[in-house]
Design goal:
mainly alpha
Length: 165
């Protein structure tokens, strides 16, 4: 039954477009062109961010930041082993996923560290990546309160994950 949902949705959209007398193919092509323009606009910002992440890892800055964060995490009741995940998650989804995999392999998915790490991964977003993509694709260039509020939300969800497990 679930295999029919996507084709049925496409058929419903096409039927509605024909009903409204829209040029479906022309609209599709126009949307694809706009998507390609957006991808070209976003690519330099994305490349710069990925380069910065790689340089941070290679220079040992991540390890130094994790060591500096360990006392604060312990004070909050969180294991310091999740520090790399907490630091990488707002910047890189794939890096955070690799960090989660490493933590789950080392400590197990049912361990306190595994449960907290999984909750952090599921309750947070790649904040800087998302803002980078949004701002490079839109005319608006001021993020306003988006970054501070997102970081605060991630900090609270991380702390609550430590309190729950």
């Amino acid at each position: 039954m679930n295999g029919w949902i996507f084709p049925a949705l496409i058929l419903a959209l096409l039927t509605a477009a024909v009903w409204k007398r829209l040029a479906v193919y022309d609209l599709f092509v126009a949307g694809a062109k706009e998507g390609m323009r957006t991808a070209v606009q976003v690519l330099p910002n994305l490349a710069a961010m990925l380069c910065a992440i790689s340089m941070m890892r290679a220079a040992g800055l991540l390890d130094a930041l994790c060591a500096a964060c360990a006392p604060a995490l312990l004070w909050l009741g969180l294991p310091p082993e999740i520090a790399p995940l907490v630091l990488i998650r707002p910047v890189s989804g794939s890096g955070a996923l690799a960090m989660l995999e490493e933590l789950l392999e080392r400590y197990g998915p049912d361990s306190r560290i595994g449960l907290i790490a999984s909750t952090v991964m599921g309750s947070s977003e790649t904040i800087f990546y998302t803002v980078c993509i949004y701002l490079s694709a839109s005319a608006r260039k001021n993020s306003g309160y988006a970054i501070p509020c997102s970081l605060l939300g991630m900090a609270v969800s991380t702390w609550l994950a430590g309190m729950l497990f």
